[in-house]
Amino acid sequence: MPKFIKKYSKKVGLPPGSLVHIGEKHSDISKITVVDYSKDHYEEKNVTALEDCRSYLEKNSTTWLRLTGIHDTQLVQSIGSLCNLHQLVLEDILHTNQRPKVEFYKEYVFIVLWLIYYNEDNDSTKYEQLSLVVGKNFVITFEEREHGLFDTIKERIEHSQWREKDLGSDYLAYALVDVIVDNYFLVLESKSNKIEEIEQSFFDDTSAASARSLYKQKANMIFLKKSIWPLREVVSTLLRNDSTIIKESTLPYLRDLNDHTVQIIEIIESIQDLLTSMLNIYQSAVSNKMNTIMKVLTVITTIFVPLTLITGIYGMNFKYMPELEWKYGYLTVLAIMGSIIFGMLVYFKRKKWL
Amino acid sequence: MPKFIKKYSKKVGLPPGSLVHIGEKHSDISKITVVDYSKDHYEEKNVTALEDCRSYLEKNSTTWLRLTGIHDTQLVQSIGSLCNLHQLVLEDILHTNQRPKVEFYKEYVFIVLWLIYYNEDNDSTKYEQLSLVVGKNFVITFEEREHGLFDTIKERIEHSQWREKDLGSDYLAYALVDVIVDNYFLVLESKSNKIEEIEQSFFDDTSAASARSLYKQKANMIFLKKSIWPLREVVSTLLRNDSTIIKESTLPYLRDLNDHTVQIIEIIESIQDLLTSMLNIYQSAVSNKMNTIMKVLTVITTIFVPLTLITGIYGMNFKYMPELEWKYGYLTVLAIMGSIIFGMLVYFKRKKWL
Amino acid sequence: MPKFIKKYSKKVGLPPGSLVHIGEKHSDISKITVVDYSKDHYEEKNVTALEDCRSYLEKNSTTWLRLTGIHDTQLVQSIGSLCNLHQLVLEDILHTNQRPKVEFYKEYVFIVLWLIYYNEDNDSTKYEQLSLVVGKNFVITFEEREHGLFDTIKERIEHSQWREKDLGSDYLAYALVDVIVDNYFLVLESKSNKIEEIEQSFFDDTSAASARSLYKQKANMIFLKKSIWPLREVVSTLLRNDSTIIKESTLPYLRDLNDHTVQIIEIIESIQDLLTSMLNIYQSAVSNKMNTIMKVLTVITTIFVPLTLITGIYGMNFKYMPELEWKYGYLTVLAIMGSIIFGMLVYFKRKKWL
Amino acid sequence: MPKFIKKYSKKVGLPPGSLVHIGEKHSDISKITVVDYSKDHYEEKNVTALEDCRSYLEKNSTTWLRLTGIHDTQLVQSIGSLCNLHQLVLEDILHTNQRPKVEFYKEYVFIVLWLIYYNEDNDSTKYEQLSLVVGKNFVITFEEREHGLFDTIKERIEHSQWREKDLGSDYLAYALVDVIVDNYFLVLESKSNKIEEIEQSFFDDTSAASARSLYKQKANMIFLKKSIWPLREVVSTLLRNDSTIIKESTLPYLRDLNDHTVQIIEIIESIQDLLTSMLNIYQSAVSNKMNTIMKVLTVITTIFVPLTLITGIYGMNFKYMPELEWKYGYLTVLAIMGSIIFGMLVYFKRKKWL
Amino acid sequence: MPKFIKKYSKKVGLPPGSLVHIGEKHSDISKITVVDYSKDHYEEKNVTALEDCRSYLEKNSTTWLRLTGIHDTQLVQSIGSLCNLHQLVLEDILHTNQRPKVEFYKEYVFIVLWLIYYNEDNDSTKYEQLSLVVGKNFVITFEEREHGLFDTIKERIEHSQWREKDLGSDYLAYALVDVIVDNYFLVLESKSNKIEEIEQSFFDDTSAASARSLYKQKANMIFLKKSIWPLREVVSTLLRNDSTIIKESTLPYLRDLNDHTVQIIEIIESIQDLLTSMLNIYQSAVSNKMNTIMKVLTVITTIFVPLTLITGIYGMNFKYMPELEWKYGYLTVLAIMGSIIFGMLVYFKRKKWL
Fold it and tell me: Which residues of C47-58 are buried (b: 16+ CB within 10 A; e: fewer)?
């Protein structure tokens, strides 16, 4: 089962706004990276002292501050003070148990998302929380562990042949969310292939393994659907917002994103319907196989048990059994038995049991 | 399984607006055809140099520009510049992974649709993307491969006895969408016939083949439903629009189209309900058949096993077994066995097992 | 399967507004009848020349023009010109493939409905299209074949003791639709009785026939539900309209009609739920019967096979088998076998298998 | 099956507003009772001549006019004239086939409800129609038969220690509806107990009786749900109305009633979900039992059939069978058979079949 | 089955506003505790005479009055008079059969909630009613029995390092509801673990115990879902209210609460979907196991029954059976039997039955 619910007990009883990291600790070190770019410059740097970031944030250029490894509550608190983040925002970043959502504050937009990881090996799907704070000229991302998903964005911006460098922080935020949505398509593509494989075999192979695969895919789809719904809400809320941080020029991209989330939901629902149909058919196939087995058993029993009775009769030790004395008694019995077999076979052939 | 999702991986990581063709390459050559008509003239021409089209577009007559084979990104780009199409529109035309949609731009309306192809041979249904750009006096269609579906429209316009020649580009767009919707009816008609065939046999023929056909029809319906929903949205959006390109005179036709899409959805849902019922009944039929088989087995076993025991008893080699010496021992035993058979048959008859 | 979709192929490729009759030809002759009445007169006449109707239509009295047999496209066209009907209306009348709907024109209201026919013999339900054109002082009905359903209305008006003669064309239209809705109740009543019959037997009679009846009722309900939904839309649209043709005084009757359609939908849905429950229980009943059969088989096998082994043992031809020489060997074995049977019976009794 | 639909055929073909009693005749005599009360007086009387009621209605006190037995259309008509009721209202009172509804007229509010009767004996649920006409200072109830459900209300008013006597006709109407709603809770309580009983036994007792009880409860719930939905609509319509007959002071009570109907719907839906789960589990339990039976059969067969073969071999009459001559041949064979039994038992133990 | 409905019968027939305790009596003594705090003081006291509370309520500090054990209707009535509570409010507090709801009165807000108790031992979930009256500077809680759930709140307030002491009565109410919501997460966490356990075993362990656990979890989820829906309504009503008692500063906390209830609903629905899938797969697994058993039976029968026939043949006592005289007759028969076994084994191996 995909984990629908993370360890929650640690939080219970704490006052709201308490900064405690909830969730697995995915990496040992917390790392801060800064990507800073404007129309004509691009800079990327690992930061050790948080104060070094202040200058970037104060400049007019677009700054992307990445924190990888959020278990260091102290560091999250410092970033919070640096950018004037609300205490409840910091709490949400640390409690990796959030439902994806977007919240509009005066100075920034706070977005919580799930990054979906698909594990090809055991066909399981996991997620980690990605928190985004989008300000006028900066984006701060809080990531649970190091992953290469955003590398293409960095490269695209660095070597931007198009005007991407010029589009500001809200476009950067869009690009990050776009990667997450694209990842859904990739996950669905791989699932889709796996389901097609099952589809080609499950009529004939009614083994428990087929059922197991079907179940895994069903569980995966339930998980994916549960995770995409709030994401869709996030995107459509961003689309309808009237915050000054999301500029008009970014709306067409968000509209595109919205279309994609709708498409993902529809694909998931279609696959769910298909899996339900497959399961129903699979159950029929199992029953059909049983029928086949039972037919074999019944045919064998029906043919041989009466014959055995005949041999039993002539195996009795009665003194006066005239047939036993007949010269062709034995052959007659064999002939009768042969014709019984033949008759039965014809009968079963007609009943289409053979 | 109908393909719900096309190869997506190629796109991931590209900036929005990148012109890369995504999808299968269905034909080798890209072909441009121009159909130009007004109240009193009709012209049809294959175009080699795109510049030749400019004169048609500038004239007041209605121009239908058809591009067949969209893998030639260069050509699509040229058409884009010729008609001032937005970069994101061109991207959507090339990424044949779009959900059907309609977008209103100042100078034109952009519509993405699915052409449903039904393959009678393997009872499978596929689709290709059809993109339409509808301008004041022109329609551009981007088609993935050559198909004859729009031939009747060309003929109708050419030999128009009615005022179709006079109705402009929005009517032409309607006529194209109408063909797509009509095609759904044809597909549903053929499915409907196939389902009726299954319906007449599946009570008696509980073979795996019945289940397989049921599954195929279910998968088909899931696919059709998934594809008609966004089409309906497209039609009803066109109906409610306030773009100047869709003229009032075309609205009654669009209303008709809307009625048809609603009807198609209702037919599909009814067929889905019916298929679900059929599958349930099919499962009962399989179980019923099993009961029949088991009854045969049980009747045979119940009759012959006790008889075999009797023969076994008188086949024992005890020295002192008085019955063996009796003159009519053998006949008595045969008579007893006969009456057991008779009694059992009466019993099973009464229990309605025979 | 009830036919959800009629022969559609004939239409494909035709321009909108083409007058081609689509559907089965139900009768050979097209017949026109005129019923004309006002507060103090009533007249009924078969018309041969359509021109004879003009005088009726021009009078102030309420005129009901009935066309039975709509395959005569020429006749439909003439009626259309007589009353100034739109070309698309005439097309809808002839294409008997319409979803029930209501359309408001300036001079008249156009209503398409389904007349449900229930065939008691093969428990199937069919429909034919009924098109109504309701004008200020006339109602035109286009009926596919002769049926007696509207006779009571004619009689009621003719011998009207109440003010029905006085209520005008919209009331007449209401009365016609009311007959259709009442017919649903009659159909549901007959189904309801049939289902009750099945209900009383299907626990015990797990034959395939039960499943077949259940399936038939399910298919019937799917069909009825599909047909009543658009009818309800028609009625509630009529209720909310602001056309001058539907007078205020008719609204209470339409409200009543609306209540009835809602009630029909609720009854159908309840029956569907009930049928689903019955099918589930039926499947359990089949499985339960199987258990009963298997118990018999197992009991018989378990009792007789060990006994047969014993007789087998003493049927062996070993030279040195001391028991065979014992005087009471045979009786001892019989006694042992008897006590095995007794023990087994007690055991199965306790396990509640008998 | 609970009756979802009453005999309808009698009505078909009648003009609207015809006063014909539809439904079973539940009692022979129609009885009129008058309860009249105000702050400081209470009077209860059986009325024979309807005219006697007029004085009560004209007084300022609250008058409750009860008609028990509505088959006397003449009487209903007289009451109608006495209180100026609309012809369609009288029709609805007599056609006991109404969906619960509320209609606001100028002088009165007309409410149709269902009184749910639960029959403990055959665990079935029936309903009868209760029509209420609520005027400024009177309530008229039309009841199909005598039932004691409203006795507590009469007593409460008579011995009112609270201000109930003072609250007028709309409060009285509320109190009557409240009794109906309370009755639902009682019905649900009894069902709930029955379901709990089934729940405790159906894992072990997979007999057909369990399935039958489950089915009955399912059918009951479908019926209850179907009947409570329109009741809820009635209550919430009363709550939102702006009729002068429902006074502000009664709204808190209606709000309470509304809460209760919502609660009833939620309880019914939860029970339905539960019953569906129980049915699914029941089906598994039946299959599981089958597995158990089959295991017994297979174990017995697998152990004894090979042994029987061995005895068969040494029962053959070949001349040269060396083993037969061995001194310990018999014992050896017995030993071998014993060890086969032992080995098999161990094997099945390991496979957890025993 | 979780109890969806409490003993209701006691109430039926009573006038609204009657103070009768409905529900189980959970504790013998009713206890009143007062917690009073403001920015700089904190006091906690057990109260014996209710009058002692008046001074606290009149002070400006926040007062939390707890009544544990609500069966003492006299005491509830006194608290009601002390704080001017409406008679219907007191009735709702005593009738522990309420659907969670919130009602706004002029001087206070009345909230009814369910406290969910999870019993780890028998994996059952029960609830008790918690009624809250939130006034300007006080909160009164009516609890059915003593439970430790609110202890952390008391401690948090007493040792408040944050400004919780300063936030007033509406924040206190929020904190209490928050505990209830947090409890849902804990319950879901424990269920989630249990379901994961089942998930790991139910493919192999198709025993009735698995089905029983699945059923229990399903019933639990139905109960949880039924209880969380009205809770969500309560929270979102509080969020949208315009009462002066809920201050703006509390809204962010309520928003957070709202997010959590939505998340809980989504988790429950996902788990329900998963359980349905598991049940379906479980049913297949049971059928699969049956197939395995049947295969064993069929293989054994198919191999041994024909062999037994052969031994039967040569066990017959015919005088003229030439084979019996052959020297190697016995060995030949043994060899034939051996090759039949071998052939069968190969055959079944190929059919993948072994």
Answer: beeeeebeebbe
Residues of A within 8 A of E187 (CB-CB) are none
**In a 3-state reduction of DSSP, which class is residue A153?**
helix
Q: pLDDT tens digits for B301-347? A: 889 888 988 988 888 888 888 888 888 888 888 899 999 999 999 99
pLDDT beneath 70, residues of chain E:
1-13, 26-27, 161-162
C321 CA to centre of own chain: 77
| Inter-chain touch E219–D309, beta carbons under 8 Å | no
CA distance E64 to chain D (A): 28
Q: Give which of E291, E300, E354 to mutate to test A binding, by max A Cβ within 10 Å.
A: E291
CA D171 to each of CA A205, D55, D134, D257, E105: distance values in angstroms, whole numbers, following the listed order: 68, 22, 10, 12, 22
Tokens 């009387």 -> residue: D45
Q: Which H helix or E strand runs over B135?
A: strand B124-135
Nearest residue in E to D198, CA atom: E1
If phi over 0 gives left and psi between -120 and 50 gives alpha, with beta otherwise, what is residue C232? alpha
Structure tokens at E148: 């430790």
Nearest by CB to E99, which of D263, D290, D306? D263
Are D5 and C189 within 8 A, CB to CB? yes
**Do the beta carbons of residue B108 and residue B33 sit within 8 Å?**
no
Q: Assign domain A31-285 to its CATH superfamily.
A: CorA soluble domain-like (3.30.460.20)
CATH topology for the D290-350 domain: Methane Monooxygenase Hydroxylase; Chain G, domain 1 (1.20.58)
Question: How far is the C-alpha of D114 from the C-alpha of B269, rounded, in Å?
Answer: 33
Inter-CA distances, E98 with A241, B114, B171, D261, E111, Å? 39, 53, 61, 12, 11
D182 contacts E12? CB cut-off 8 A: yes
Could you state, in order of their start, the residue ranges of all structural domains in chain E?
Answer: 31-285, 288-350
Higher pLDDT, A327 or C120: A327
- Assign domain C287-350 to a CATH class: mainly alpha
Calculated CA dihedral for residues D197, D202, D207, D212, nearest 10 degrees: 60
Across A285-307, b (16+ Cβ under 10 Å) vs e yields bbbbbbbbbbbbbbbbbbbbbbb
Helix B251-313, helix B168-201: angle, nearest 10: 10
Both structure tokens of C110: 């156009």
A318/chain B closest Cα distance in angstroms:
4
- Rounded to whole angstroms, the Cα distance separating A336 from E181 reads 80
Predicted TM-score (pTM) of this structure = 0.86
Contact C316 B312 (CB under 8 A): no
Q: Is B322 exposed, middle or buried (0-12, 13-18, 19+ CB in 10 A)?
A: exposed
Chains in contact with C, where contact means 3 or more Cβ–Cβ distances below 8 Å, are B, D
Neighbours of B336 (CB within 10 A): 12
User: Where is C284: in which H helix or E strand?
Assistant: helix C251-313
Question: Thinking of the domain A286-350, which architecture would CATH place it in?
Answer: Up-down Bundle (1.20)
Assigned token pair, D165:
């006597």
Q: What is the pLDDT of residues D52-69, one digit of tens each?
A: 888 888 888 899 999 988
Distance CA D244, CA D253 (A): 16
Of 1.10.10.10, 1.20.1560.10, 3.40.50.300, 1.20.58.340, the CATH number of E288-350 is 1.20.58.340
Provide the 8-state DSSP code for D248.
G
